[in-house]
C-alpha cells in the first residue's frame, strides 16, 4: 500500500483509498449513524444548503485560499467545516483542515469526508499523526524543520535569514498548514495527499527539504526576500512531482529522528503563552464588506498575510 501511495493513486481509486487510509471507513463501520447524528445536533430539523453564518477556518490559512470547487462544492465544504467545529468544540487551531476538506471533496462524498476527517483528528490527538492542532506545536514543527535544514544546507538558511530577513519558521508554517496547496499544481497536491494519508506529516518535512535543495542556486542568487520567495514558487510549480520523488528518497528521516529533534526544542512549547496554544478566533468566508454573512463562492481569507514571513 505504501508503494502504491508513493507512486500516486489512480484518480478513479483515490476516494476509496483515502477513505480507507484515513481511518474513515473503519470509523463509519464502528459508528454508522455518527454523521446523521452530528447533522441533527448541529442543524436540528433543517440542514441548510448554504451556511448563513461565519465559517470557521481554524486559525488559517496565511494566504488567500484558492480552490477548484464549484459553488455547490463550496457550500458543501462550508457546511462540513461548520459541522466539524460543532463536533470538535475544543478545536480552534487546525489550518490544514480547509485545504484538506476542499481537496477531499473532489473524490469523496460529504459523509465520507466527515468520517475521514473525524478519524484523522482522533489519530492526531493520540499520535500527532496528521494535523497541527496547537499554535505552539506549529511553531515547534517549524523550528524542528529549521534545525533539520541547518544540518543539511546551512548556507541556504543563513542567506535567507541573515541576508534577506526572512522569518523562516513562519515560512515553513505557512507551507505545512496549506499542505502545499499554494505552491503545487492540483495533480501534484493530490499525489502529495496520497502519501500524506498513509504516512502522515513526515512527507511535509521531506518535500520541504527537497524544495529548498532544488531551489538552492536561485535562493543564493536572490537579493531580496521577494526574489527568494518567487524562486521557491517557481521551483514548486515546475518540479512538483520531482520534489515528491526526491523527498521520498531522502535517507535518515525516520519518525524517530523527528521526535528526537522535537525533544531538543521542547522549550518552544513552554515559551508560547497559554492563550495561543489553540490559535485565535475562527475566521470567516469573505462576503462583502463585513465578511460575516453567507458564503457566495468567495475566497476564504485570514487576518495574517504573507508579510509575516519577513522579520
From TrEMBL:
SMART domains: TBC (SM00164). Gene3D superfamilies: putative rabgap domain of human tbc1 domain family member 14 like domains, Ypt/Rab-GAP domain of gyp1p, domain 3. It comes from the Eukaryota. InterPro entries: Rab-GAP-TBC_dom, Rab-GAP_TBC_sf, Rab_GAP_TBC_domain. Pfam families: RabGAP-TBC (PF00566). Residues 8-200 form the Rab-GAP TBC domain. This is TBC1 domain family member 24. It comes from Paratrimastix pyriformis. The lineage of its organism: Eukaryota, Metamonada, Preaxostyla, Paratrimastigidae, Paratrimastix.
Amino acid at each position: 500500500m505504501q508503494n502504491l501511495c508513493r507512486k500516486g493513486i489512480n484518480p478513479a481509486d483515490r476516494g476509496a483509498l483515502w477513505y480507507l487510509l484515513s481511518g474513515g471507513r473503519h470509523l463509519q463501520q464502528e459508528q454508522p449513524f455518527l454523521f446523521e447524528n452530528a447533522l441533527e445536533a448541529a442543524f436540528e430539523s433543517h440542514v441548510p444548503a448554504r451556511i448563513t453564518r461565519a465559517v470557521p477556518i481554524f486559525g488559517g490559512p496565511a494566504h488567500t485560499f484558492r480552490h477548484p470547487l464549484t459553488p455547490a462544492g463550496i457550500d458543501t465544504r462550508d457546511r462540513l467545516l461548520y459541522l466539524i467545529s460543532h463536533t470538535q468544540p475544543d478545536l480552534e487551531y487546525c489550518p490544514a483542515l480547509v485545504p484538506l476538506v476542499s481537496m477531499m471533496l473532489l473524490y469523496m462524498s460529504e459523509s465520507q469526508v466527515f468520517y475521514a476527517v473525524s478519524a484523522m483528528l482522533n489519530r492526531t490527538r493520540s499520535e500527532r499523526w496528521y494535523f497541527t492542532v496547537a499554535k505552539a506545536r506549529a511553531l515547534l514543527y517549524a523550528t524542528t524543520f529549521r534545525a533539520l535544514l541547518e544540518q543539511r544546507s546551512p548556507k541556504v538558511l543563513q542567506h535567507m535569514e541573515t541576508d534577506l530577513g526572512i522569518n523562516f519558521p513562519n515560512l515553513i508554517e505557512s507551507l505545512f498548514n496549506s499542505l502545499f496547496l499554494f505552491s503545487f499544481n492540483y495533480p501534484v497536491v493530490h499525489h502529495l495527499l496520497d502519501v500524506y494519508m498513509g504516512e502522515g506529516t513526515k512527507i511535509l518535512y521531506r518535500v520541504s527539504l527537497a524544495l529548498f535543495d532544488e531551489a538552492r542556486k536561485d535562493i543564493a542568487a536572490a537579493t531580496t526576500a521577494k526574489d527568494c520567495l518567487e524562486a521557491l514558487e517557481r521551483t514548486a510549480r515546475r518540479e512538483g512531482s520531482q520534489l515528491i520523488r526526491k523527498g521520498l528518497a531522502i535517507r535518515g528521516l525516520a519518525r524517530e529522528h523527528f521526535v528526537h529533534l522535537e525533544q531538543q526544542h521542547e522549550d518552544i512549547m513552554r515559551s508560547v503563552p497559554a492563550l495561543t496554544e489553540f490559535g485565535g478566533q475562527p475566521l470567516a468566508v469573505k462576503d462583502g464588506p463585513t465578511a460575516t454573512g453567507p458564503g457566495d463562492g468567495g475566497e476564504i481569507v485570514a487576518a495574517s498575510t504573507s508579510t509575516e514571513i519577513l522579520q
